[in-house]
Design a protein that fits this description.
There is one protein chain. The chain is α+β, with helices and mostly antiparallel strands and 148 residues long. Helix content is 24%, strand content 28%. The protein has three helices and five strands; from the N terminus they run αββααβββ. The chain has a five-stranded antiparallel sheet with strand order 2-1-5-4-3, sandwiched between helices. The longest helix is centred in the first third of the chain and has 14 residues, at 7-20.
C-alpha cells in the first residue's frame, strides 16, 4: 500500500486507479490531462523502449523543468542530469516495468545544489496492450529547505 505525503500524488493515483478498472494499468489514451490541469506542472511521461531498455522523456511539466533547470522532453534518461541517483532511478524504472505496479519513492535532492532537500516521485505504469508497460506517468513533488 502506498502512503502519500502529498495530496496531489494521492489525487493522481486515485485518478489512475479509476481509469485502469480491472487491468494492471490504463492506457495512455485513458489519461486525459483536462481531468487534472492543476497536477500538470509536476507530471512527466516516459516512453519505454526495449532492446535495449531505455526511457525517453515525452512530457515534462513546467514545475519539473524548473526543478531540473532544463526541459528534457525528447531526451533519454541517460541524457538527463541525475547525478549520484542515476543508478537508483534507473533501477526503480526497471522495477516498475518488470513488476507492473505503481511505486512511490522519497529521494535525496541535496545534490541538485538548490534549496531542495528531497523529492517524492510517484510512478504509475501505462499499457496500450494490457501486457507490457510501455509508458510511465510520474508525479514529482519537491520539499525545499524551510518547508514542512
Amino acid at each position: 500500500m502506498l502512503e502519500f505525503s502529498y495530496p496531489e500524488q494521492q489525487q493522481l493515483y486515485d485518478y489512475w486507479n479509476s481509469k485502469r478498472e480491472d487491468r494492471f494499468a490504463p492506457s495512455r489514451g485513458d489519461i486525459d490531462p483536462i481531468d487534472f490541469p492543476h497536477l500538470l506542472p509536476n507530471l512527466c511521461i516516459y516512453k519505454i523502449h526495449r532492446n535495449p531498455l531505455r526511457y525517453e522523456v515525452t512530457l515534462m511539466g513546467t514545475r519539473v523543468v524548473e526543478i531540473w533547470g532544463v526541459d528534457y522532453t525528447g531526451k533519454f534518461v541517460e541524457d538527463v542530469l541525475l547525478g549520484p541517483v542515476y543508478d537508483q532511478v534507473t533501477e526503480q524504472f526497471r522495477h516498475i516495468v518488470n513488476n507492473k505496479e505503481p511505486t512511490l519513492h522519497d529521494l535525496d535532492a541535496n545534490w541538485l545544489d538548490k534549496d531542495y532537500i528531497k523529492y517524492s516521485r510517484l510512478m504509475l505504469p501505462l499499457s496500450e496492450n494490457g501486457i507490457n508497460v510501455d509508458r510511465l506517468l510520474l508525479s514529482v513533488v519537491l520539499q525545499t529547505k524551510g518547508s514542512s
